Amino acid sequence: MTTTIQYILLIFLLSLAAPATPAAETPREGAGKIIRLNEIEVLDPEAAQTDAEESLSGILNEIKILDLKTARQIALSANPSLAAARDRVVQASERVMQARSAYFPKIDAGASGARIWRSDTQLAALGDPDDPEDTFTADLKATWTLFDGFARKFRNLSARYGEQESREADTDARRLLLAAVAAGYYNGQLAREDIAIAKADETFNMRQAHEAKAREAAGTGSLSDVLNFKVQVNSARTRLLLAQQEYEAAMIGLAGLLGIPDSRFPGHITLAELSDETPEEMTLPDTENLIRYARTHRPDVRQDEYALRRAASDVGEARSGFYPTVRLAGSVDGERTDNMGFDGDDIGGALTMTFDFNLFEGGYTRARVREALARKSETQNTLKDTRIAVTAQVRDAAEVLKLARDQLVLQRASVKLVRQNRDLVEKEYQAGQASLVRLNEAQRDLTQTRSRLVLALVSLRRAWENLRAATGEILTDVENISERKS
Question: Which family, according to the similarity comment (predicted)?
Fold first, then answer.
């Protein structure tokens, strides 16, 4: 090795050993504030959160009527629990990169310098050495694993399947979030319809109270009728206050699901009107087809399938302990006293191949294999249990949907009959042919039947969303909010 090569090698070693100079902070568009630590970019969480809150605030300012689809899109973009699930996916992806690094050689560089003061005894034994003496060393080492019983292969497979597990877990979190948003949204719509029903009841009784007062003044009515209708007005107002409280609670819960920081919508936002049922909503799906779809599309089922594959890979990694390990290593070392002027006489090297084969370790490897096999069996049983649970959820949701549809048909017919009856009783009361008690009953029946109709309609919508969540189909028609804005 020539002196020039030796100096180049030394400079290379020292440059590797020198500490890295932290770079200045550099911004990245759309990603918040970026802090660079030893050449590694790290997202500043506080700045990122501020940017996200400002973006969400801008979106909410553009919305006047919040429909279910938009609510879901906002939740997918801003809900912090979903952001945490995405972070877990990133962690799993980085574990894949860590496992893949085992296929590459490991290269290490080192350098040191020391000043040595020797004792009088050492000086006497060495003759006439320099005291103190400066010693400098530098080395470059490379190690490459050629064979490890396929442990690297199975670790990579395990990491990849673990990454897929995290992705499916993220998808399942989205499925559950979408179902929760739908439930919260329909709770809000139900409460708002109850507000409208209570207001209509209040208006009806106020009109009756006004007419009763006019009849009393004309001498054809009684004070008890006036007082009765005033009591009914107060009862309607009580129901109105309760419905308004339910609406506020539903909106607070929905805002929390959407990731709004203070769990409160701006005052200008209102929910979309509760529309009537469609023919498609009144048509029952084929349960068996839904079950087959759920078994192949539910993310929690796929998550358990990847967990089973990962467990099988762990068995292979455990069995790698029965095989030898072959490594190739090379090193270049330099050592010099007094100064750092390395030359050819100061530099040496070595090339080594090692073969390691464990003969006995107290049954450790066999125990690892048995543990991995037991974990695989556990995962198989977990997968079976998940499939059974999914099947049960789909069947139950389908039965609830059928019941909700039948109830809606009955309530829709009942409202027509009860409204017609109330109108007839009202005319009879005004003509003096029906009692006040009969009118109160007819109005109360109408109010209750209208409330049951709204509840039946909302129950039908909830049942559809629960069924779609049970099958995983709820994930198919959701766009990303960024695509919507573009």
Answer: Belongs to the outer membrane factor (OMF) (TC 1.B.17) family.
CB 175 within 8 A of CB 474: yes
Q: Which residue has the tokens 């929760």?
A: 180
Nearest partner of 458 among 411, 394, 404, 390, judged by Cα:
404
Round to whole Å and give the CA distance between 398 and 470: 10
The pair of structure tokens assigned to 155 is 């670790």
Question: CB under 8 Å to 275, separation ≥6 — which residues?
Answer: none
Please give the distance of CA 74 from its chain centroid, rounded to a whole number: 13
Q: What's the confidence (pLDDT) of residue 482?
A: 40
Q: Is the pLDDT assigned to residue 47 strictly greater than 60?
A: no
> Taking the model in full, what pTM does it have?
0.78
Q: Which residues lie across from 115 on neighbouring strands?
A: 134
Domain boundaries, the chain: 3-485
Residues with Cβ within 8 Å of 94's Cβ and at least 6 positions away in sequence, in order, are none
Do the Cβ atoms of 138 and 434 come closer than 8 Å? no
H or E segment to which residue 382 belongs: helix 364-430
Q: Which CATH superfamily is domain 3-485 in?
A: Outer membrane efflux proteins (OEP) (1.20.1600.10)
